[in-house]
Design a protein that fits this description.
Number of helices: 11
Number of strands: 11
CATH class of the largest domain: Alpha Beta
CATH topology of the largest domain: Rossmann fold
Low-confidence stretches: none
Order of helices and strands: HHEEHEHEHEEEHEHHEHEHEH
Helix content: 25-40%
Mean pLDDT: 88
Shape: globular
Number of domains: 2
Structural class: alpha/beta
Length: 257
Amino acid sequence: MNNEIRNLLENVSNGSVSVDEALLKLKAKPFEDIGYAKVDMHRKIRQGVAEVIYGAGKTPEQIIGIAETMQRNGQNLILITRLSEETAKVVGAAHPMEYYKEARCGVIGQLPEPDGLGKVVIATGGTSDVPVAEEAALTAAVLGNEVVRLYDVGVAGLHRTLAHLDDIMDASVIVAIAGMEGALASVIGGLADCPVIAVPTSVGYGASFHGLSALLSMLNSCASGVSVVNIDNGFGAGYLASMINHMTGKKGRRKQF
């Protein structure tokens, strides 16, 4: 259950919030229709993480309108992914925003202090994979995780990977990002005792088929505990890594039949 709802129910239990006050908060409309978007206000209640704005294909004015709707409904930290530098300048003029050029992301609000169970390691095969890695790293940071970056540790020079064994062994979850043949995920998966999220990238020559070769290699990994997200999907990997790094036991929360 989402922490905010749990806190609200605990406040009702201890008498600091009345039942009517709590009911009013829970009855707030689940989304707001602003014409070109239906902004989801209950996503944090359902999933524990508020809605994120996908910037590609949206006009600056649409992004500004969605962000204003979120803020009006109490969302003070907003992540905007796949945001071009040109669009970021327009959005930043309307809302104070930190733009992360390499990640192609913008953040409205302050990054939170890490509150995850451990560290999220973001590892790349090469420097060309860094833009996808930065999207994953920033996503994880926005969601309250301590992030460790291991860049350019691909298997073409295996000693580079092995030089970071302490970080690999100490991680709670690892995001392994690689193009070409995508072997990094299998190597790290064979070393780590934590979940590994593999991200194929569209980096490589013709036969890499814009990331398809890496995707198929990662799906066929012989290392246990490796899962795979879509090509270049740094956001999805960072989000999933955060979910894993914030897992708590659910035993006893559901009624047993």
